[in-house]
Amino acid sequence: MKYSAAFESAFERTLESEGSYVNDPLDTGQETKYGISKAAYPGEDIASLSLARAKEIYHRDYWRALSLDLLRGDVAAEVFDTAVNMG
After folding, report:
1. Among 10, 22, 72, 76, fewest CB within 10 Å belongs to which?
2. Per-residue model confidence as pLDDT tens digits over 11-61
3. Could you write out the DSSP letters of every residue in 11-72?
């Protein structure tokens, strides 16, 4: 799938803080990879989640759901990052 340059930039920025696989028993999100949690996506195999699949989820459930292509790039990136961090 081809994504907008604004989404690609926002996605890369968000990944800087979301990072790799974590399975902390004290984390209510349960398993997490690339910021995608088992609690939010119980049908996903989080440990095997690919970067491409994480991007699909972020694009569908955050970027498109919030119509962020309608906003200026820097504003869209900030809204996207905030939405991801708030779940």
Report:
1. 72
2. 999 998 887 899 988 877 789 999 999 999 999 999 999 999 999 999 999
3. HHHHHHHH-S-B--TT-TT-SEETTEETTT-TTS-GGG--HHHHHHHHIIIIIITTTGGGS-
**Pair of tokens at residue 7:** 């989404």
Q: What SS3 class is residue 4?
A: coil
Answer yes or no: are the C-beta atoms of 27 and 34 closer than 8 Å.
no
Q: Which pLDDT belongs to residue 1?
A: 80
How far apart (Å, rounded) are the C-alpha atoms in residues 35 and 8?
Answer: 16
Angle between helices 51-58 and 5-18 in degrees, nearest 10: 120
Instruction: Give the C-alpha separation, 78 to 13, whole Å.
Output: 10
Report pTM. Answer: 0.89
